[in-house]
Amino acid sequence: MNAAALLTDGSVVVVRELGADDVSALLELHRGLPIEDQYLRFFSTSPRQLEDFVERMVSPDAPHHVVLGAFRDGRLLGAASYVVVRQTDFAEVALVVSHAEQAHGVGTLLLEHLASLARGRGVRRFTAEVLTINGRMLRVFTSMGLVTSIVPDGEVIYVELVLEPGDHYLDVVSERESRADVASLTHVLRPGSIAVIGAGRSPGSVGHAVLHNLVEGSFTGDLYAVNPHAKSVAGVDSYASVTALPEAPELAVLCVPAKAVPAVAEECGRRGVRALVVISSGVDAEQLLNAVRAHGMRLVGPNCLGVSTSAPGVRMNATFAAHTTLAGHIGLITQSGGIAIGVQEELRRLGLGLSSLVSTGDKLDISSNDLLMWWEHDQDTRIIALYLESFGNPRKFARIARRVAAAKPVLAIRAASSEAGQRAAASHTASSATPSVTRDALFRQAGVIAVDSVPELTDAVMALSWQPLPGGRSVAVLSNAGGLGVLAADACVRQGLHMATFGDETRKALAKLVPQTASLQNPVDTTAVVDEETFARCLDVIGADPAVDAVITVTVPTALGDPTGGVHDVDGKPVLAVRTGQTERLAGEVPCYAEPARAAAALARLAERADWLARPREFARLGRIDLDAAQAMVAGEEGWLPPDEVVALLTAFGLPVLGGTLATTAEHAVAAQQAYNVPVALKAVADDLLHKSKGGGVELGVADAGGVAEAFRAFQERFGDRLRGVFVQPMASGGRELLAGVVTDEKFGPLVVTGLGGVDTDLLDDRAAALAPLSTADADDLLHGFRTAGHLLAGADEDAVREVLLRVAELAGALPEVVELDINPLVLTDTGCVVVDARVRVAPAQHTDPFLRRLRTS
């Protein structure tokens, strides 16, 4: 194990397992403890045979005895160890931290990594003995977020930690990570000094453009140029090298040729630079990252546009964009410099600005996860916009984004949805693009508002910036041009909104304001003769109707007048305006769109956010699960499980399985049918036979011994030596058929899928997907998320189907060995549902911990 991670002050440490070569470092750590710390550690002020104790600590006895150390600049700051007790899943844990480092979170970080490692090696509980006077150590244990028991016994307290990482633990770890991340990103987004390395004298060079933008933007800190051939660049003092600078800059922007980047990064690290922005492309990623990690720096890029912030105390534009950043409240992160410029320019045209911009490029280090945590705590940022072509740690992203989106809108431009787009993204960012189904499920569940273009993004940002969220999806359209009002109504319906039905009082009030030829039904056509004042009064009347959640106005100028000036805010309800060919902000805070479809789409994004915020966040508590038995079934297995084992596995998770008998002879099959005493289905179990119906491996409704024997012989002739047996099941009563399944992605985890089942499932491809774990709201969305859901679920027991989906998700999350699960069909009845057929593929699972605090090291 070798991982880089952040301490609470934002500094970087390396956490790794210790061995015999680390004895001297461990001795130095222990000998450096003051007498008080030695007493608290060893219950003695003069520990005997310290050398023998340290050598035993690093004796090679994994997984029964493990020691982790945290290093910074090659110096050991602390060590945590566990020793398995009596070959059980209990382990005694111990921790020692240098006295000078005890307030920086070294011990907590070490325990997090030690617990993660121990879980992967079968340890389930840590135990420790702590002196009652050792309050600091007790606080370290109790603040971990794990289930903890404390038993005092005289001068000693016995502590036990349950290593199962529940939601509370993950929340606590995420909070610690957020604090550390914000501290480290201060060097990137709030630097007190910057050096542009490779700042050319030619205005056509990237380095010159970055330095020029910093000067023109009035960066408030100290600014330096590094160019061995110039004394001054763009009016800024220039130095021959980083070493020659009068001080170590907090942030260095590298615009040097790609081959020189690793060496310059190494020089920056030795000089004491805290963060790098690497503009250069084609850089050796491994060499660059090694230099960054060796010196505890943070890194943006390489292959990026740069970074900027409009905070008044900083005013930093360290990019080579053509224009300075307009100050505003939107945080923008993008892998593409071109997208960053496009969004920035479009927002500028609308009078909207950025709080900060980070172009991550190849994102070797700083990623969307880091920036989400920064913007969560940044008071200048009210809206967050993302353009991502791939995810480094999507499970952590989902958890962070869900928390951030609860307080601030998070939007993302969907990228690489097509095969061609995925190829281009892989070429562009040197990383694999994310499958669109998985990405969309992640965005939807995390509350990220997904759009497909820069204009869609800015349209939604306009609405979110200037208007409140609607209380529902009921919309009124007010227009002085009937045809455009109809188009607006059609666009609303296409976006999942619906047209409000006005109350009698609203219609009566409107009738007093508009000509008799006007239409008082929704959409309202005031006719072309109304003036600004009348149009404004009509808007007030409609906005006051309790049935209306939002209003879209559509106005065009005529020879008789232009009522656009009458469009205004309505208290507590969003108002979006349409004026053909015009996208801007009207008087007050009303966003104006160039066509009805764009206004309807923006309003739908507001409704989407309101719906997500109103969703319940509960996760169901499921009983009737025998996890120990299920884990034993999949341990050490690989490939498709036999049908009888599939039945046992699903039954262990409380799923309503029809069951059956695996028969290896015709006589055995006949006996099974007679025991059931009903017509049966016979299903061949043969090598490489996955789709039994298509492969001729199913006989249905066999009602007697002769039919069973004949079907068995037919399977023997058809499949020969490939036949491993015949699964005999009682026939299920008829009903509508669904599928429910799981496909596990190495990064994203289990993806739960449901939809139309039966033999036509592949032909119609009508499915919905969501990532595990599923909340009850996620399960509802999944249940109603495919096209034929309304027809298939009509009259069915939806609660029973929902519970099946929740149990399937629970199985997938608890058993990482299950890489593929397919229930088809799940037969629905008026009183429940039953799993008629299923298959499960398992593979040895490697222990991974996506929520462990660590930085990328390769």
UniProtKB/TrEMBL annotation:
SUPFAM superfamilies: Acyl-CoA N-acyltransferases (Nat), Glutathione synthetase ATP-binding domain-like, NAD(P)-binding Rossmann-fold domains, Succinyl-CoA synthetase domains. Residues 13-164 form the N-acetyltransferase domain. Gene3D superfamilies: 3.40.630.30, ATP-grasp fold, A domain, ATP-grasp fold, B domain, NAD(P)-binding Rossmann-like Domain, Succinyl-CoA synthetase domains. Keywords: Acyltransferase, ATP-binding, Ligase, Nucleotide-binding, Transferase. GO terms for molecular function: acyltransferase activity. Pfam families: Acetyltransf_1, ATP-grasp_5, CoA_binding_2, Ligase_CoA_2, Succ_CoA_lig. Its EC number is 2.3.1.-. It comes from the Bacteria. InterPro entries: Acyl-CoA_Synth/Transferase, Acyl_CoA_acyltransferase, ATP_grasp_subdomain_1, CoA-bd, GNAT_dom, Ligase_CoA_dom, NAD(P)-bd_dom_sf, Succ_CoA_lig_flav_dom. This is GNAT family N-acetyltransferase. It comes from Lentzea kristufekii. The lineage of its organism: Bacteria, Bacillati, Actinomycetota, Actinomycetes, Pseudonocardiales.
